Each structure stands twice: as C-alpha cells, then as structure tokens.
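User: Show me sequence and structure for the first protein, then do the same for the second.

Assistant: Starting with the first protein.
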Amino acid sequence: MVLERFLSAGGADVDVTSSTSDRFNLFHSFYRLKWNPGKSLLESYKCGISNLEFHILYGFELGNIGTAVLSVPDSADSTTVEEFIRAAFRPEIIRQLTKTLAFITLESEKHLDAAMLIIGDLVKEQGLERAPKWYFDHHMFIAPSDQPQLPVPEGYHVAPLKVEHIPYMADIWAQDLGQKSATDLHLAFMTSNIVDRPSLGVYVDGVETPVGWCICYSTASLGSLHVNHEHRGKKLARVLIRLMIKKVVDTHGILPYGNVHFDNKASAGLLTSEGWNNLPVNYSKMFVSPSYLSETS
C-alpha cells in the first residue's frame, strides 16, 4: 500500500492535479488563498490503492479545534482501509483530534463499523478513558453549476458580514442547536468564519443588523444558512446561496458542497429544489470532549 503525503506540516507547496477529488482540490485552494485561519495547519494524504483520502485541518487559535475527513470508497478492501487509517492517524494527530471534532465520510455504510472500531482502538491506545462516540449523520450536497443569480427583493440588500454581528449570529446559531446562548466556542467559530473567509448577510435597507446570512467553512463547505422567521418566504436564502456559490466558483474554479443534518428536512428540501446533488455518502461526526482525556494523555 502507498501512503502519499501531499502537503507537509510546514505548508510546502504541492501539485494537487494528481487528485481526482474536487473536494480535495478545494481544500488546498482554500489553504493557498488563506481562506483557512492564519494559524491553521493542513495535512493531506492519499492512498495509491482504491483512492482513499485523508485530510487534516487544525485551527489552533480556536483552542485545539481539529477536523479530519476520511474518504473511503466502497471498492476499497478491508485490509487497505485498516492499513491506511493506522498510517494516517498518527499518535500526535489522535491526541489533537480527540480533544474536539473528527469526521469520516464514506460512499455507503460498508466500511463504517470497521473504521469506527479501528479509530476507537487507536484512540484508546493513546491513554483515553474510553472510545470516541459517533453521532450526527448528515447528507452531503454538491452545488449546481448552472444556476442564474436572483434579484434581491425590494427593501433588502446583500453585503459582507462584519465582526460586530458575531455575538448576535452566534446566539442564534446556539439557539438553533437547542442551547440558550452562545459559548466561547460558538463565538470563536463564527469569528473565524467571518474574518478569514467570504460571508454574506442580507439586510433590511437602513438597518445595520443582518436578517439572514451564509458563511464559508474552513473545510470548504457552505453553511450556517439562516433567515429570520419574519423575513422568510421572500427567496432570501436562495439569493444568498447562489451568490456564495458564485464567489467560490469565481475564486477557486470548483463547486462548493454542503452538509445537512438528516433531521433538517427544510434545508435538504431547499438545496434539492435549488438543484444541489445529494451524494450517496454516509457522513458521520465523531466527538470526544476534553473530559474523555486521561490525565496522562
């Protein structure tokens, strides 16, 4: 098996044309254009057998926030999958990622159980009290390439979001997640997304606070789409989505993607009606809180 490291920890340049994954190229396009936070460290690997890919994105300024994306096609054999996971998930990576977030994406559930067990074993080998928990399944959508822009409804205008909007937006995001108000994590996450990458808000003319917004995540997806209840039904979300697609395509030459929770029927329906392609991907999130760490880890 071949494990090729595409981008070194020092941020060395790399020819990403060898990758067949648009999403893989999009990660690196974000990195090169500094659409990832300035203190990020991105490492990517690709297996020469069955096209397994692994991407790591750290955001140290957020307090050990880490993201890992493991792409495993159904055509891969179990031996290759295990060898690749063990080679890519080095101990120092495990110690970082298990403090916060990790992701795994697969074309179906064929390799999911085995991958969970392997990563769980690797986590426990690093002195953690128990294996990570997996939850929060999503659909993955790819944006369409032929959607025309929509006119902004009368009485509204679209403009970039500003840092002074962050507390308000973070509170709404937290409430959408069932929490009373924003935590430091919500604020840090929203700050990074607004400061480091393009974002758009829709405003009532003459009012400085946005009534809707869409942002671009460090993992190269669009997200946090929101329109206040009293302003819905005016195609404001569609206006924002299409403008953000255009921004990413014009800058990177690659269509963005988005992840929608299985329970979020409204967003899934909106993207489907907008022509987004719902990929046959099982998208699962792994979360291990700091309390899972042993004192020696």
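Switching to the second protein now.
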Amino acid sequence: MASDGEGLLLYSAGFSPFSRRVWMALIEKGVKFEIYEMDIAENQENHTEWYLRNIHPRGRIPVLRHHDMLIRESITILEYLENRFPEAPKLYPQEDTGEYQSVKTILSLIDGEVPDPAIVTFGVARFPEFAENPKISLDKLAVRLEDRRTKDISSLNKHAEEHEDLRAGCESKIAYLQDILKAATDKQTFQQALDKYGWMFSEVEQILATNRESTWLCGDQYTVADICMTCLITHLVGLGLHSRYLGGDERPLLSKYYERAIQRDSYVASFKKGGANVFKKK
C-alpha cells in the first residue's frame, strides 16, 4: 500500500457515478483515504455556503482534498492520482501506445459524446414508464427532481444575492440545473438522450469485438476507461434501464464485459463502503 495516501479526503455522493469512479480508483491504487459522504438529497449539502466557498464554487461532486490541495472534476482527479502515485498499480497505459489512445477515445465517448447522466436520471423520474425493475426508488427520485426545481435553485439564488464572492459560481450552477431540468422533463429530448446512450454502447460493442481476445476495454490492463464505463452502466442499471442497453442479443459482448467488471474487487468494495473511513457531517 502506498503510504503517501494519508491526507486524502474524497467529498462524495453515493449515487453519483462520478464519485464512484474516484472511489474505485483510490481502492485500485491501494492508498489510504477517507470519504466525506455528502447529503445532497435531503439537505443539499453541496449547495451550502460552506461547500460553495471552501470546496467547489459550483457545488459539484466529487472533489478530492490532498492535504491542503483541492482537485476538482473526476477525470482531473483520476489523472492526479495516476501522476501522484506512479508506483501504485497503473490505471493509464503508457502515453505513446495504442492502448493509451483507446483509453482517451472511450473517455471522450463517455464524457463528451453523450448527454449528461443527470438528464437520464431525472428523465426517468419524470417518465418512469421507461424504467424496468429499477434498483432505486423512482418516487424518491421524483421528489429530488422537484427539489432541484425549488430548493436547490432557491438556495443558490439566495447565496448569489447575499455573497458577491459566490455569485458567479452560483449563477453558473443555476444555469446548469435549468438546462438539465428542461431536457429531463421534455419527453422527446429525454428519448433522444436515451438513444444517444444506445449509440455509444453500440460503439463500445464494436470496440470489444475488435479486442475480443483482451480482458478489458483497451487490452489486458485494467484502466480508468473500465472504471468509468462500469460506473456509468451501473448508474443506468440502477435506474431500471438494464434491458434497454444490456438485454437481448444486440450487445452480447458488452453484457459479458459488465458481468466481468462488477466482479472486480474495487467495484465490490466501493459498494460495501470499503477501502476508506466513511463519515458524514454531524
């Protein structure tokens, strides 16, 4: 275990696929870390004055604190961990290899070619007929959707009015939430988002077909591409979209890949709150 991991604290939210990416990577790296589990469902803790001022000006999650340094955005955090702990198991291939380019291609698919997962999350809450056997309560998710319309935006507006130094970040987050809510509550836009994810998973099916002899997406090395893909699929499965993307005969290699990926120790441990001391605000 890399001893220099002491001082690592991850601000996380349980259902966020972006938070779970970092949690899994920390476990894979074998570093010591702690988790601060944010209460974003009931108390919108990521939109408190404390969090906006001290952790992330737009209230985004995850954020990694390493001693006095804050690293924001999940991909930036993953890159930081790779560079900061090079002696630990590597999650990126060598940069001058085809495998490295494959990782970058898959990450661009996940984070650049498909709509924000929040659109799908709240779209399912608005249109539950698209879900089949969800693993989470869609009723609670619908309440969270309404909270986004009211409590979140109201709280951010209040901070923007009362604190000049928080205004820019709050206004940016309000605009983001309004865009997400508009897309998620328009049935046609929501369906287009679902279809775009279907397109992406078909692209991944082709990648797996090309690398049929390999264990993982980009070869025999387990990488951040596998972490991010597994977390995304898990998020969609939790929403009740398993049969849309993994069911039937359309993507058999992706289905087998996912079955293999969720057996990974870091994946199992992250759901058992393993690998870290997890605490919440008292």
